[in-house]
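#struct-help
A.M.: can someone run this one for me? Single chain, 104 residues.
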Amino acid sequence: MSASASLLRLLHAARLLAGPARAFRAKKPDAGARLSGALERLGPAYIKLGQMLATRPDIVGVEMARALEHLQDRLPPFSEKQARAEIIRAFGKPVEALFSSFGA
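D.P.: on it. Structure tokens below:
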């Protein structure tokens, strides 16, 4: 991935996370739902971050952890085709060039 593409992805993430961050600082009751939605829109790596944070109420607070719990087991499934496309987008290479096996 080129430096400019990486920068654009980082700026996109910052834009999506700015609203939830403001809501969290302002102690708004929907801050957790906002963060959860933003992480879901940002994709698999960010969802993993949310899943980890959901297990750490000592870090993010009980309400935030509860709001992030849905990232652990209540996300809609996606197809292998979508997974392959995401891997190509993220790594710039097809699945076969990165993994010895892939799929169910």
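A.M.: thanks! The mean pLDDT is 88.
D.P.: also worth noting: The helical segments are 3-25, 31-42, 44-54, 57-60, 62-68, 70-73, 80-91, 95-98.
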